[in-house]
Amino acid sequence: MAYFNGGSRAIVEILSNLQNVEVQVPVEHTFHELGSIRYHIQASASDHENIYLSISTPSLSNQEDSTSNIFPDSILQDIRKMYSKFAEIIQPSKEGYTLTLKLNFSNFTRTKDRTKAINAVSSLKVVILNSQLKKLLRNLGTKDKIIQGSSFPIKMLNYQNEPFFIIRAPKKITAIFPMNLKDETDVILATSLFQELVDLGNTFRKALNCTWSPIPPPEIRGESFQNLSTNGGFFSFDIFRRHVERKKAGKTAWILLNFQAYVKYHVKCTKGFIQRKMMQRLEVLSDAIDQARIGGGQIRQRQQKATDKKHGKKWISFSKSKKFRRGFNAIRDQIKRLRLRIKIKGLINRHWLNFPKLPKLVKYSKLE
Prior knowledge:
Strand order of the largest sheet: 1-2-3-5-4
Structural class: alpha+beta
Distance between the termini: 125 Å
């Protein structure tokens, strides 16, 4: 789960530096992330314990009111619950921003706890996006709005500005993800993952039903060409009412917001696993080639001894006795050769080769 938190590194760096500064000075930072999320951090020298963090985020879907700069009460409650120990929501927020938090880390005496709180603050945009999507799923999960709502697609953006679509239906909600991958290798690995997910969704009753298609589904074929031009196809989840009831809405929202990041992470891990297996096969092949060569067995023995020595195994050396035994065997063989009868090629004893005696030729006279 920690790989997909989407925390802001800039917030972590700025807040960490403010906690480590000995002499307090006024600080004010304004920066953007992903082109649409704007942050503002302000701290004064007179009130160095309180740090004011403001954030401006666009609406999660294209159906919400983009002119409103105030979050609903349900989203504010989720933020209060998440940061109740060290943050307070300032209302009204700073001009031009949708949310302003007053941070105070003085209650944390240990550096470990302070670092954990800073990392939690860096994931503020993920908390907001998750709350917005959870609210949307709960609204779509009510019976009246599902029946009355039309089936037009709602375009949504995750924290990496990657689009996906939500389609309302009388008895279900369909989430469609256009998958964009780097190269053909990633497409092959992702396609195998999609097939496994489809099989699991069809096997287990409580799992989300899912489908994969290389072409855009009929529900989103009216969208722009930029959103429909993908190399990894389109993956769809069918979300029913039981998936958005009570606490399940938060888990479902987390899955939808992190699905595309999870696919890329899975592809990365699979490529690393394949490379490790290829290196192991290469080592086995090189060992087989060494054994096939002259002296390959000796090389293998030296490698085995080095491996055993590395793992703590001790070998007793008999080098002197082996040298003595080899010298003794060489002298013995030389004495044996001296005692043998010398044979000269070309001199052959008669009793070695017995030639048969041929009978004398008999002459015959011709009869007239």
